[in-house]
Write a structure and sequence with these properties.
This protein is of the alpha+beta class. Helices cover 26% and strands 27% of the residues. It folds into five domains: 256 residues, no CATH class; 186 residues, 3-Layer(aba) Sandwich (Rossmann fold); 99 residues, Jelly Rolls; 102 residues, Immunoglobulin-like, CATH 2.60.40; 126 residues, Immunoglobulin-like (Sandwich). The protein has a six-stranded mixed beta sheet, sandwiched between helices. Bound molecules: 2-acetamido-2-deoxy-beta-D-glucopyranose (12 copies).
């Protein structure tokens, strides 16, 4: 028998069939949803702020006729931001939906059960975290927190009687903790009469006349005489007074007021955005929304051991070059990250937006110390992955293998890569050579595996040739680079690949990694260039160690390109270009019910090998384009499974894949520029994904407060007959502590908990990233949990904490439950 003392709520959650949304719908073809209320308000507010910024620059502002991510980015004179604006909105919307899934039983998150004070508390507490995160430039946390509170704010207008009281403007007191919440119907005042069918006047006249604020009950018990939320899943609406008052959609009990409620919710969302804007600069506000002059990131993870002197000089040179040559251009990086490490320490993450400050940080780097040949490279990489925005290119420099404890980080690093979709490139200056050529250095094997998992480059190069390799950094950190194609050709046969390049692509580049790969490229017009022709009709081929880079000259390379590989050895092929069109995807957990308007949340784990899984896919950078196909491809580029697409409007698609592949897979989309043209485009993720036979269900504390303990419980379930699981947890914010406890499996189940304390002086808005990797005893499969959390406002440390845990800065503690 099992005992899960901790997980009573969790078990309930997974067994309760009615995860029905008690709010504006999340996904709906017929009603205003949380999603499009959020989208509309963000576009309106962003356009308004842009107008101010553009006029201040003495330039013309052209108000877009129809607000879309593209038209707003254009009006902001930053057309290349269309993608990042769409991405930011999508992150905010995803988190908005998450609130329903996580807090479906908490009335204050929905202004149900007359929980006005607590509901306002959710909003104002969250708002202070948004502002604190923004101050620390933790944009991703700020977006998540914003999404959460917008859900609650928007629900007020659907679930209370604010609209029935004839208010057509937002209630400002909800975003201001200092204003009184007055005229609330007290808990003894009856508010509704029973409603048999389609009644919209079931709120008592006295309540309306005295302008008392009330809301519907959803979570029992309902006090006598109170209104219910209403709807088929609301059990309180069966009790007297029956019926309900929500305005979630047109079919709701008060559906005739749905449009009014949605309008006021949109205005309230704009007001909350304005409140954030007032505490920061217009530029920072726009940046929160993804509108920046550049979206590129320069992220360097560098070994500072004595032997690295040459490498460090080269990094100083290349950093200065990038910063000086891109001053004021769209390719100027907008975020700079530096993470040093050596054989004794790692850390000191520098993350900034000011290029000159960054230059001086890099200038301070110096090589020194008599270290060993085991370096904290992967611990430092982990921190870089945690600090960098999703989708960053990270460059790691070292000339030695990872420390023994770092080797254990492999699964955890892969979890970070899959969750952040960042790319890790290794530039390793410890090549081995025999008399004639460079041979692979076995200490670099783990680096190679990590580079491959992320679709990054793996270069072993002598210190003398280092400058040839670092030009890769200059070329991979320009804005707007997209991944068009990625395959790994196995050994034993030649290969031929067709690459579809659309008319929006410029700076087409082929990267071919593998020893001595012989290839030929054929352009759409039939011109051919072979790998030996370093300067040919199509472009320039540069070779650095095992990487050959082909930069195509043609400024307009649209058409089908063919790549023929003659070598029998394995190699990887990556094709990139610059284009405004890209896609974003997230694996999502859909509420466990077969109803259309259900909630979802972005998954924090790998999908399970048994059963289907769902992706939420957004087309970025094209207002009129559409995605026509999504295919999971294996590393050789062969299609494994096709997803079925459900168009959600605004370029968003819900994609269901019936079966999770057994092995590695990548995600490839094909789309059209609009429904009338046949002109197609193709994009592919270079991040490698895997499903797992272990499934993880997570139950966690919702807020991370300074001076408090945070717990994450997890239940593991496996379809194999493994006897135990190995777990490994890591957390930023403090130094990490690791345990590798072994959790016994009983009938395929196990459970564990990770507990960490947040230092009492942690600043609000500080990010904690937590990963828990779980591997079965046979080391055949891994799954993980990835959480990004922001510290909320500080509170005094609770008394009676275990002193050892509190004082030691010892942050993680995993224990298994008694299984009997
Ligand atoms: C929101 O969705 C509804 C239903 O699809 C639609 O009628 C409405 O125009 C949408 N609003 C926006 C701003 O997209
Ligand atoms: C009703 O409100 C009063 C005063 O605010 C409070 O003391 C009492 O506990 C409440 N009763 C219930 C059942 O919530
Ligand atoms: C109640 O409203 C629904 C939807 O608006 C409608 O289909 C139905 O006919 C109405 N019923 C009555 C009795 O008016
Ligand atoms: C980080 O900075 C502190 C103080 O500036 C220094 O003592 C420590 O050694 C540094 N660590 C690394 C990895 O550079
Ligand atoms: C590692 O770096 C730290 C901080 O820069 C330094 O204090 C220490 O001596 C270095 N250790 C080795 C072995 O190089
Ligand atoms: C050096 O390595 C290359 C490539 O692995 C191999 O072909 C060659 O035979 C080696 N030469 C010697 C002298 O070992
Ligand atoms: C490597 O770089 C040097 C100097 O930047 C250049 O002269 C040389 O041609 C490069 N070699 C290759 C193979 O690209
Ligand atoms: C990067 O691009 C520059 C020109 O933009 C070129 O000179 C350099 O060789 C390129 N490097 C690589 C590795 O492609
Ligand atoms: C991209 O292409 C444009 C035009 O073809 C060229 O001017 C620019 O230097 C290229 N950028 C890079 C980084 O190669
Ligand atoms: C490119 O190839 C695809 C099939 O792979 C074909 O449908 C398309 O028409 C081709 N495009 C051009 C411009 O030749
Ligand atoms: C949240 O934290 C408290 C103690 O701080 C703990 O008792 C509770 O079980 C935690 N809840 C979850 C879901 O982890
Ligand atoms: C924060 O608290 C830790 C102990 O919890 C202490 O070591 C550290 O010095 C404190 N930092 C500041 C800035 O007060």
């Amino acid at each position: 028998m099992f005992q899960f003392p901790f997980f009573t709520t969790l078990i309930l959650l997974s067994l309760t069939p009615q995860l029905r949304i008690q709010a504006f719908n999340i996904i709906s073809a017929t009603s205003n949803t949380h999603q499009n209320i959020t989208l509309t308000a963000i576009l309106q507010k962003s356009a308004e702020v842009c107008q101010v910024v553009v006029l201040k620059q003495g330039r013309f502002f052209v108000q877009p006729k129809v607000l879309t991510a593209e038209s707003v980015a254009q009006a902001c004179l930053s057309p290349a931001s269309a993608s990042s604006l769409k991405e930011a909105i999508s992150d905010i919307k995803n988190r908005n939906a998450w609130t329903d899934l996580i807090h479906f039983k908490d009335p204050e998150y929905h202004f149900d059960n007359e929980e006005f004070a607590a509901g306002r508390g959710v909003i104002t507490q969250g708002l202070s975290v948004v502002k604190a995160s923004l101050k620390l430039k933790n944009y991703e946390s700020a977006r998540e927190q914003l999404g959460e509170i917008l859900h609650t704010l928007q629900d007020f207008y659907s679930h209370s009687n604010w609209i029935e009281l004839d208010n057509r403007i937002p209630y400002p007191n909800l975003i201001n903790p200092y204003l009184l919440l007055d005229s609330l119907a007290d808990n003894k005042t009856a508010t509704c009469s029973s409603c048999t069918v389609n009644c919209t006047n079931n709120i008592l006249d006295t309540v309306i006349k005295q302008r008392k604020l009330t809301s519907g009950y959803y979570i029992p018990p309902k006090p006598a005489g109170k209104c219910s939320h209403g709807g088929t899943l609301d059990v309180t609406s069966l009790l007297d007074p029956t019926g309900g008052i929500n305005k979630d959609d047109q079919q709701s009990p008060h559906g005739s007021l749905h449009l009014q409620a949605a309008d006021v919710a949109t205005a309230a969302t704009r007001d909350l955005l304005e409140d954030i804007r007032r505490t920061t600069t217009d530029t920072e506000f726009l940046r929160l929304m993804g509108i920046t002059s550049s979206s590129s990131v320069l992220c360097i993870v560098i070994d500072t051991s004595a032997s690295m002197a040459k490498d460090i000089d080269e990094i100083k040179r290349i950093t200065n070059f990038i910063i000086d040559s891109r001053q004021g251009t769209a390719d100027q990086p907008s975020t700079y990250i530096l993470v040093p490490f050596n054989s004794t320490v790692y850390g000191n993450v520098t993350k900034m937006t000011d290029p000159d400050k960054f230059k001086s940080e890099v200038k301070k780097l110096s090589a020194g110390g008599e270290g060993s040949l085991l370096r904290y490279s992967l611990s430092a990489l982990w921190l870089a992955l945690a600090a960098a925005p999703s989708g960053s290119e990270i460059f790691l420099f070292t000339d030695a293998g990872p420390a023994l404890t770092d080797i254990l980080l492999k699964s955890t690093i892969e979890a970070m890569i899959e969750s952040t979709k960042s790319t890790v490139n290794f530039i390793l200056t410890n090549p081995l050579t025999n008399l004639t050529s460079i041979v692979p250095n076995p200490v670099n094997l783990l680096y190679q595996q990590i580079a491959e998992a992320s679709g990054g480059h793996f270069i072993e190069v002598s210190k003398e040739r280092l400058p040839n390799a670092t030009s890769l950094i200059t070329n991979s950190t320009i804005s707007g680079l997209v991944n068009i194609f990625y395959v790994v050709k196995g050994s034993g046969g030649a290969g031929q690949y067709t690459i579809l390049v659309d008319p929006t692509v410029t700076n087409l580049t082929f990267y071919i990694t593998g020893s001595l790969t012989v290839f030929a490229i054929t352009s759409p017009s039939g011109q051919i260039q072979a790998s030996l022709q370093s300067e040919g009709s199509l472009g320039i081929i540069e070779t650095v160690a095992n990487l050959q880079t082909v930069r195509i000259n043609s400024p307009n390379p649209a058409g089908n390109w063919t790549l023929n590989i003659a070598s029998l050895l394995s190699c990887t092929i990556k094709v990139t270009g610059k284009s405004p069109i890209n896609f974003k995807f997230d694996l999502v957990d859909i509420a466990n019910i077969p109803l259309p308007n259900s909630g979802y949340s972005v998954s924090q784990t790998r999908p399970s090998t048994d059963g289907s899984f769902t992706l939420l896919v957004s087309l970025l950078g094209s207002g009129s384009g559409l995605i026509s196909e999504l295919v999971l491809v294996d590393s050789s580029g062969s299609g494994l499974y096709k997803g079925s697409l459900e168009d959600q409007g605004s370029g968003d698609y819900l994609v269901t894949v019936e079966t999770a592949p057994k092995g590695d897979f990548y995600i490839r989309i094909t789309g059209q520029f609009n429904s009338s043209t046949s002109s197609k485009f193709q994009r592919q993720s270079s991040t490698r994904y895997r499903a797992s036979t272990i499934s993880i269900t997570v139950l966690r504390n919702t807020t991370l407060s300074a001076g408090q303990i945070f717990t994450v419980g997890f239940v593991l379930k496996t379809s194999t007959n493994t006897k135990s699981f190995l777990t490994y947890a890591k957390n930023t914010g403090q130094d990490f502590m690791l345990f590798s406890p072994i959790l016994p499996a009983v009938n395929g189940y196990s459970a564990g908990v990770v507990v960490f304390n947040v230092s009492a002086n942690a600043t609000a808005g500080t990010e904690h990233v937590l990963t828990i990797a779980v591997t079965d005893q046979e080391l055949t499969t891994t799954n993980y949990v990835f959480l990004r959390l922001a510290v909320s406002a500080a509170v005094a440390p609770p008394a009676g904490l275990e002193l050892s845990l509190w004082l030691s800065g010892l942050t993680l503690l995993i224990s298994s439950f008694t299984l009997s």
